[in-house]
Write a structure and sequence with these properties.
Blueprint (H helix, E strand, L loop, with lengths): L2 H25 L2 H27 L14 H30 L8 H33 L3 H7 L3 H30 L3 H30 L5 H13 L3 E13 L2 E10 L5 H18 L3 E8 L5 H11 L8
Main location: membrane
Subcellular location: Membrane
Keywords: Membrane, Transmembrane, Transmembrane helix, Transport
Amino acid sequence: MSTLTVVLAGTVNLAIGVLKLIAGLITGSAAMLAEAGHSVADTFTELLLLTALKTSARPADRRHPFGYGKARYFWSLLAAVSIFVSGAVFALYEGFSTIFGEPEEQTSPHVAYIVLAIAFALECVSWVQASRQVRREAAAEGRTLRDHLRHGDDPTSKTVLYEDTAALTGLLLALAGVGLHQLTGSSVWDGVASVAIGVLLAFVAYLLGRANAGLLIGRQASPELVRAVHADLSAAPEVEAVVDLQTMLIGADRVLVCARVDFDDALSAADLERACVRMAAELQAAHNDVTEVFIEPVPRTDAALRSAVLARYGRMEHDGR
């Protein structure tokens, strides 16, 4: 994830937030105030994402032998919470207060239109940068954009893209609310737009929270990588069968591989040691994401291990037993 993408998004959001707040106070528009809250939430999000990038880059140490890669997932989860608490809740409050409160007269709607136009132009700059970043990452992984958003292991780029997409959508909702208020004279439309913005932000926060929760819990690597690692292990001349294969994402572009392998019984202890070292090195050389490899020799006839594998995955195509 590029720090430039996060810094650009944060700078844009801060500038836009100030403009929206001024416009909201001048016009009395709930939708504009909701959008100001949206931009404040986005600015906090960028600060959290910068913290995620910095913290996750720390090298491994005695207390964290696998590094700090999962810190990126933790801070990105907090960013999702920030979107909900700072943005969605405020927008919903403003919206319902306007809908069920006393009618409010709209003043100087042209100010809101000017600010919305400036905000849309600035958000487009940030969105283009985030989109390019995510597309580059998807191309590097050999995935479509949709698959990368679903299976990618870097939540920071996904957060910025979702956030900017929501920002552009929110601006259109605010424009509709201000315009309908001006046309009908009813502030209810302003409130409806604010509620719609709140629902949009809550949905984005839910998507990001669910993705980061899965990564924090310990999601396996992509199916493509799992299949490739299994094929590489199975192709080793010393291997009779891959009995169990577990993978876990321990950070962006960092995968832990744990394999239980049934080796040729004719191998000596020294041969077995050399084979494990060689196979681990080959996996790391063939797959850039594989950073830690543990290979355990086991007999494929072990009933307890077989039961555990079947309970976790069910009967796999490569089982063969």
